[in-house]
Specification:
By secondary structure, the chain is mostly beta strands. It is built from two helices and 23 strands. It has a domain of 91 residues.
């Protein structure tokens, strides 16, 4: 089953300066810019929380790093306002790092700040932005990622993931904990998840590949799009599948395929949790990996 598209590694692109500047070239965007760079001492396995305020967030782990490196791209209506923005990186009482932009007064609509952050490691991550993409790679602990408008991407996360966007795709690769993904408009692609998994979109396809040994329950739903679900032999659960317009296909580990319309229920193994796959308009494909 095809899931995530091939991607270039995040860290080499960041280091080489090959990534497109975050938050660039949006209609009505403030044109006065400033780049601020900070280096913060690292505390092993501490958490990180970043609020971008109308901008993208990228956080990646680099085992060769000895400190936290923060690059902030500030956009403001005037150069004076851009120069007056303070990038704050403070440690909470528990050692967690809190990163945010502090504006000279209330941030204006066209203004914003994006962040590129490299950490030696992070155990627990919160990334919040009102408008922009979020990308994390190589982190651990609970991840809570929220944007009002933009894609969310997670690569190699050793922990549970909660990813939410009002408008944008969600891509999650190799998450070692439970996954919750929700978007109002965009596809959801999850590969190598340990489970359980909940993935819901109002408009777009949903595809899930559980890692070997992955567990349910699994809840996949879309109002308009196809659903694909793949798991390895040994998975147990009761699959309840339904579509208002489309076919349902189940392929076992021997390559044998059963096709149904509208509704199909099948028990895999014995005593497993109920797993639901629901689409209002689209096909459903379930496959046992060989």
């Amino acid at each position: 089953m095809f899931l995530l598209k091939a991607r270039l590694p995040l860290l080499p692109l960041l280091a080489a300066g090959l990534l497109m500047p975050m938050g660039a070239a949006c209609a009505g965007e403030a044109k006065h810019k400033r780049t601020a760079e900070l280096t913060v001492s690292h505390q092993t396995r501490s958490s990180i929380a970043v609020e971008a305020q109308n901008g993208a967030i990228e956080i990646a782990a680099d085992s060769d790093a000895t400190a936290v490196t923060i690059v902030a791209q500030i956009r403001a209506e005037t150069q004076e306002r851009a120069d007056a923005v303070v990038i704050s990186a403070e440690r909470a009482a528990d050692g967690g790092l809190i990163v945010e932009a502090i504006w000279p007064d209330k941030r204006r609509n066209a203004e914003g700040c994006s962040f590129e952050i490299i950490v030696p490691d992070a155990h627990g991550v919160t990334a919040t932005t009102g408008n922009g993409a979020i990308e994390i790679a190589g982190l651990s602990g609970a991840a809570k990622l929220t944007t009002s408008n933009g894609a969310v991407s997670v690569m190699g996360h050793a922990g549970e993931v909660s990813a939410n966007t009002s408008n944008g795709r969600i891509e999650i690769e190799s998450a070692a904990g439970a996954v919750q993904a929700k978007t109002s408009n965009g596809r959801i692609e999850i590969e190598g998840a340990a489970g359980p998994v909940s993935a819901k979109t109002s408009n777009g396809s949903v595809s899930l590949e559980l890692a070997p040994g992955g567990v349910g329950p699994v809840d996949l739903s879309t109002s308009n799009g196809s659903i694909e679900f793949e798991f390895a032999p040994g998975f147990v659960g009761v699959l309840k599948m339904s579509t208002s317009m489309g076919k349902i296909e189940f392929t076992d580990a021997n390559g044998r395929t059963v096709t149904q319309k509208d509704r199909f229920e099948i028990e895999i193994g014995s005593g497993g949790p109920v797993c639901t796959l629901t689409t209002s308009m689209g096909s459903i494909s379930v496959e046992v990996a060989d």
